[in-house]
Design brief:
Length: 336
């Protein structure tokens, strides 16, 4: 934040134009930096990237989204199934506290707006818990350390789960930033031509406990047809992701972390692979990922004839501060 303070007295005449120019530059900088005025309006995909980055940088964040599906088929035997399935929607929420290293995922299955089932998952550094109306009123939970005897019993392995949390929470800053940039670049390439700005503002209601707040948001609309989601197009971006040097460096760093932790805590000695196997896998990761991508594409090609034609519509709501607040996704599958 910049605060401009005027003082009493008049500057000497030879400094007046410099002061005026300085004030003008500061004023222009403030309005452009705060988003009050844009010399060059952002394209919809640029707004989405900016909102995703800004939201992701929060220490605590929450997403609310809803997914729905629609099946189109001329097969009369599927008419009843289609009618039921097309009335189903899945609202879900994700809450993350990066500082305390904890998160919560909740979703429901709605039929014509009626809750038919739900699941709430919570995890932190000590435990994981689950609650659902299918399970009654009780909350089921495991301490991470309680899982070790089960792993030992059923898999004859030693895995001290809490020792591996650094794989999730500790990444070199440079590696993390480069990987994040690579993902945003791929996102731009994939979605840039399919995002448009909505014509009207929309109201989004955010509930925090018992309190509800209505927020005015701008809407970014996503439209992707069958050609955009075809097997060939999806494979092209999947390969681009796996071949990206920044993504590859991130995965290799995580493998190195895994080996170091497992070796230091004694877990590796109980595994059916050796340190040399894992390091060789790390060093040849690019070849393995290329082979994996080819295998997946070949398998998908073999079943392409029976796969539905899919289209995707989405609405992303961004508030005036530039945070992503809400999204709605709808997928249509057409069977021939």
């Amino acid at each position: 934040m910049f605060i401009l303070i005027s003082t009493e007295g008049q500057p000497k005449s030879k400094f007046r134009w410099q002061k005026g120019m300085l004030l003008l530059i500061l004023a222009l900088f403030m309005v452009t930096a705060t988003g009050c005025f844009g010399l060059f309006p952002k394209a919809p995909h640029e707004e989405m990237i900016a909102a995703a980055k800004k939201t992701n940088n929060l220490k605590e964040l929450g997403y609310i989204a809803e997914m729905s599906f629609r099946i189109k088929s001329e097969d009369p035997e599927l008419a009843t199934f289609n009618q039921i399935f097309n009335e189903i929607s899945i609202p879900f929420s994700i809450n993350v506290d990066k500082k305390e290293k904890r998160g919560q995922l909740g979703f429901s299955v709605l039929y014509k707006g009626v809750d038919c089932g739900n699941l709430l998952l919570y995890a932190d550094r000590e435990r994981i818990s689950a609650q659902s109306n299918f399970l009654g009123e009780k909350v089921f939970f495991f301490a991470w350390n309680d899982l070790q005897p089960l792993i030992q019993r059923y898999f004859n392995l030693q895995v001290q789960i809490t020792d591996y949390f650094p794989l999730l929470f500790e990444t070199k800053r440079k590696t993390s930033r480069q990987a994040e940039t690579a993902i945003y670049d791929l996102y731009t390439d994939f979605y840039a031509d399919h995002l448009t700005a909505g014509q009207k503002k929309v109201d989004v209601t955010i509930t925090d406990g018992q309190q509800g707040e209505t927020i005015v948001c701008k809407e970014i609309i996503l439209q992707m047809g069958y050609e955009d989601l075809s097997l060939e197009e999806s494979n092209r971006y999947f390969q681009a992701l796996l071949e990206n040097e920044a993504i590859l460096a991130l995965l290799q760093e995580k493998i190195t972390q895994l080996v170091t932790i497992a070796k230091d805590n004694g877990d590796l000695a109980t595994w059916p692979v050796t340190e040399e196997d894992l390091l060789s896998f790390r060093d040849n990761l690019d070849a393995f990922l290329a082979e994996l991508a080819t295998m997946i594409f070949t398998e998908q090609q073999a079943t392409q004839a029976v796969q539905p034609q899919t289209s995707l519509q989405g609405k992303f709501r961004i508030d005036r501060q530039g945070f992503l607040r809400n999204m709605v996704l709808s997928q249509v599958m057409e069977f021939n």
